[in-house]
Amino acid sequence: MFIHYKNKFPELSKLWDTYEGFQEKIHLPAKHVLLREGETAKYYYYIQKGVVRAYLRTNTGEEKTVQFFFETDGLSSFESFMRAVPSAFYVETLEPTEVTRLPKEKVLELFERLKASPSFMDMVIYIFSDRQIHYMNEFVSFLKDSPTERFENLIRERPHILQRVPQHYIASYLGVSSVHLSRIKAKLAGKH
């Protein structure tokens, strides 16, 4: 959501630090579900160490990974968190993970305090445009690029995902089966 931008905006970092007493540090095992589809998000999470994924289940029960989160990323099911509606997503750890979580009421309080900052609008515009650009690029790539092109983009732009995320989740993220992803990898390996 926004705290992972704290290094870009010093006042955001200072405010986050003033909420240290309300932040709960949690050590979680792999495959721990932080939020289930249908639940209402009550916490904002900041990842200290580990990998988390957001996914949804299709009507046929198939899991579709929509995003991965790593160290220094912040997350919640944004719509659920902000509008108090049921989450469309599951949020789950993929490896042993350490997070700091802040309850919703404290996050909203922090927002209110941020509004007093002279650079508040700059922060809002930067953060939301950055996220919008990221999601729009993902959406356009999914519509325009072949699975092989999407995999090549992943190799080029976010190789850390390939190093830390199991192949079947990467396949789900790319919209292909694990078998198809294996074929793509073999084909690309044959080129080099």
TrEMBL record:
Pfam family, one: cNMP_binding
Residue ranges annotated for the Cyclic nucleotide-binding domain, each copy included: 11-111
Family annotation (CDD domains): CAP_ED
InterPro entries for this protein: cNMP-bd_dom, cNMP-bd_dom_sf, RmlC-like_jellyroll
Domain of life: Bacteria
Record's protein name: Crp/Fnr family transcriptional regulator
